[in-house]
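Please fill in the sequence for the structure shown.

STRUCTURE ENCODING:
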């Protein structure tokens, strides 16, 4: 295609547009972080880096790696000779280029070695690469075609026919469209717009003569297009393809980079070796930066404080201070730097994982066919969440797989789920129903159950090494063992380790939206100052964010006396519940108090308190009635180990007239002998009725029925007791510091005048008149209302 002087060579133009392609992708990634939209986009934590290909090196060329933090070259990638074109993956783990053999290669940015040669066939138009912001696809330009590569599997997923040779590739911030600049043997250049969902060209833009780049704003609603034949930059409405305005710039604009805020656009002009600085709000050039820049290409750092311009002849990269729009430095980068690609770090660095998406075990199949749970110990370096678990699957690793997350210090289960939509082999992912908050420095165990074995296995992997990078790593075997397993079933904690293997289990970690302020209480039941509260209703408080279960301090008091009960916490709805171990007395004012820290130790400065009043209407009941449920094992000590003969009792008051038909007690396995039960008159301390327990079980609740029901009067106190001839009774200390009510029966609180939880040593039957510490000996009357 004929061009008027002055013009660059095709190779120089190729290099400039490749730089612009990198800016269009890398810059937008840093600005908007679209990779977060995919919950399973596993992004490794990495610093910002600028990659520059040095094609004229006497040794065949290499790739320089520049650190924007120090503006110095920190390493050189030597595995590719005469690299042509650059693109970096959204997660920063892979660099793509074309080597002197014409092959398109993927370079591991950690090891700086070629990890794969991509199966791209057909004529590749050197230098034209672009990656999508979600990290799923690489686009490779060619003559008459555009090749789409799955970056997770390194396989070609589509070949898109285009009219002409691709000399520029640019992906919009959503990843929904690729803009390909096409060159034919004659006529102006065109821009083909490709729908990435269907991999088809939807339409062609013909508004320009010589478009050299397409740079998008953060929302993707505007595109800035330098035209190196018209010496302009056009602002395109991407919804309508209408040119909104055209801005005159220098001679032969070749590339452009937008600051993350979108306020300023830097345009390199290859024809007059200048940089035009455009105020995007006014669409005017505010500054023109001259020597020592050559204006081949430009990229921007993550914060927009510095722009980098590669100078082919000067063999340097110029650093522009965007605050003053002046040259602040020059970095030598070898012979003839042609192309640049920027990875702008992890401003939005997670979700992330220990192992790379393309990582493959050496031992894909262990050959062990036994049902096994295998796992890995991981530790975050920052506060965050574990969203799920993944594992590498061999083709013989069949069946339904379940995953679990545990605390590393005791194997407490934090979350579990079932893997679905599995593929035949490769990485499988489970996302928990709710993310699990995790603390920096703590250790967690991620595991999965392989019902038919054939898990992956690399022996000695963690022997002297950890794995991964901040903010999530798998710990070294020296930190208490790693590579864990168990043969004890699908729900068992994998607490064993041998030979420090890697079973290729991993987590999905995210450090987004972690609170930095203490949680607040957003709602309570009953509400503050509520009246008519049911005596059987639990008390709840809901937090603004997840809290640490161990930090929850929840109490309910009656005139300063604590009501006994249990506290639970539901991480799904961030609600703490206080369940009294007794019905609450009617018509009584109670005070609830709660305080907690969130999962990352942000503590409330003080408790939240509120009052509520119970209903004056007694709760409904159905007899036979007792004070305790009579099922399960009571809390406390099942066997006192006291071998002495003793009478153990409870003081109770019925609220209505009725009869006591029998007595129950909880029996430990060593409470042997013949047990008798007695009902006592409180006022006279005399026995009203007695009977012998028969048909006892070895342990658990035992029931004795009197020969005749014994009438009792509402409001009068009685004692129910049983005699333990060989001791070994069960007890719970401090139970009767508050009354216990199961309407219509109440066991009053223990006082200095009238103790509750009573006993009396002697044989065969002794009035249980003594009391200590409000101890409940788990004796219970069986009552029927009249």
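FILLED IN BY: designer on duty
SEQUENCE:
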């Amino acid at each position: 295609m004929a061009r008027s002087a002055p013009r660059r060579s095709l190779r120089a133009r190729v290099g400039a547009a490749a730089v612009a392609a990198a800016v269009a992708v890398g810059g937008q990634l840093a600005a908007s972080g679209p990779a977060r939209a995919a919950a399973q986009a596993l992004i490794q934590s990495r610093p910002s880096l600028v990659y520059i290909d040095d094609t004229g090196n006497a040794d065949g060329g290499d790739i320089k790696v520049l650190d924007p933090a120090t503006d110095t070259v920190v390493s050189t990638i030597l595995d590719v000779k005469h690299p042509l074109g650059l693109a970096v993956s959204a997660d920063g783990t892979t660099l793509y280029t074309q080597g002197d053999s014409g092959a398109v290669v993927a370079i591991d940015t950690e090891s700086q070695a070629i990890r794969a040669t991509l199966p791209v066939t057909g004529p590749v138009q050197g230098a034209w690469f672009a990656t999508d912001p979600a990290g799923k696809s690489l686009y490779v330009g060619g003559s008459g075609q555009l090749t789409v590569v799955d970056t997770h599997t390194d396989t070609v997923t589509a070949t898109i026919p285009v009219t002409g040779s691709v000399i520029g590739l640019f992906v919009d911030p959503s990843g929904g469209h690729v803009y390909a600049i096409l060159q034919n043997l004659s006529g102006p250049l065109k821009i083909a717009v490709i729908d990435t969902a269907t991999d088809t060209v939807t339409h062609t833009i013909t508004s320009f003569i010589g478009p050299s780049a397409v740079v998008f704003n953060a929302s993707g609603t505007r595109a800035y297009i330098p035209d190196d034949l018209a010496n302009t930059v056009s602002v395109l409405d991407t919804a309508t393809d209408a040119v909104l305005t055209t801005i005159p710039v220098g001679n032969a604009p070749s590339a452009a980079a937008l600051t993350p805020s979108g306020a300023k656009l830097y345009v390199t002009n290859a024809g007059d070796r200048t940089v035009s600085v455009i105020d995007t709000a006014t669409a005017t050039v505010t500054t023109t930066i001259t020597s020592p820049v050559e204006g081949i290409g430009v990229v921007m750092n993550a914060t927009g404080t510095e722009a980098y311009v590669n100078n082919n002849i000067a063999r340097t990269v110029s650093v522009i201070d965007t605050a003053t729009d002046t040259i602040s430095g020059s970095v030598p980068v070898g012979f003839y730097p042609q192309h640049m690609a920027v990875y702008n770090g992890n401003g939005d660095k997670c979700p992330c994982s220990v192992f790379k998406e393309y990582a493959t075990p050496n031992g894909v199949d262990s050959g062990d066919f036994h049902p096994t749970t295998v796992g890995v110990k991981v530790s975050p370096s920052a506060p965050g969440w574990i969203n799920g678990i993944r594992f590498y699957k061999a083709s013989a690793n069949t069946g339904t797989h379940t995953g679990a997350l545990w605390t590393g210090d005791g194997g407490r289960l934090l979350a579990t789920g079932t893997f679905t939509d599995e593929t035949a082999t490769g990485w499988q992912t489970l996302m928990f129903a709710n993310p699990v908050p995790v603390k920096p420095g703590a250790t967690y165990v991620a595991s999965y159950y392989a019902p038919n074995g054939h898990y992956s296995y690399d022996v000695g992997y963690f022997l002297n090494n950890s794995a991964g990078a901040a903010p999530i790593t798998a710990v070294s075997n020296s930190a208490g063992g790693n590579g864990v397993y168990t043969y004890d079933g699908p729900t068992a904690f994998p607490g064993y380790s041998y030979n420090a293997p890697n079973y290729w289990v991993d987590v999905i970690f995210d450090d987004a939206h972690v609170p930095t302020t203490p949680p607040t209480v957003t709602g309570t039941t009953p509400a503050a100052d509520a009246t008519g509260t049911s005596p059987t209703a639990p008390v709840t408080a809901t937090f603004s964010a997840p809290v640490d279960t161990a930090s929850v301090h929840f109490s309910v008091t009656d005139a300063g006396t604590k009501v006994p009960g249990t506290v639970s916490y539901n991480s799904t709805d961030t609600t703490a519940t206080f369940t009294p171990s007794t019905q609450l007395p009617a018509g009584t004012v109670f005070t609830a108090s709660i305080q907690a820290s969130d999962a990352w130790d942000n503590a409330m400065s003080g408790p939240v308190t509120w009052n509520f009043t119970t209903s004056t209407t007694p709760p409904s009941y159905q007899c036979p009635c007792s004070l305790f449920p009579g099922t399960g094992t009571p809390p406390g000590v099942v066997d006192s180990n006291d071998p002495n003969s003793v009478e153990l009792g409870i003081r109770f008051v019925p609220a209505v007239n009725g009869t006591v038909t029998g007595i129950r007690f909880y029996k430990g396995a060593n409470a042997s002998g013949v047990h008798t039960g007695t009902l006592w008159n409180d006022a006279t301390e005399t026995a009203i009725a007695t009977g012998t327990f028969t048909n006892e079980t070895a342990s658990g609740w035992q029931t004795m029925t009197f020969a005749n029901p014994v009438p009792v009067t509402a409001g009068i106190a009685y004692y129910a007791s049983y005699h333990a001839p060989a001791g070994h009774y069960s007890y719970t200390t401090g139970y009767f510091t508050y009354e216990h009510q199961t309407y219509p029966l109440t066991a009053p609180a223990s006082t200095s005048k009238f103790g509750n939880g009573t006993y009396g040593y002697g044989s065969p039957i002794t009035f249980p008149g003594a009391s200590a510490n409000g101890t409940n000996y788990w004796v219970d009357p069986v009552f029927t209302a009249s």
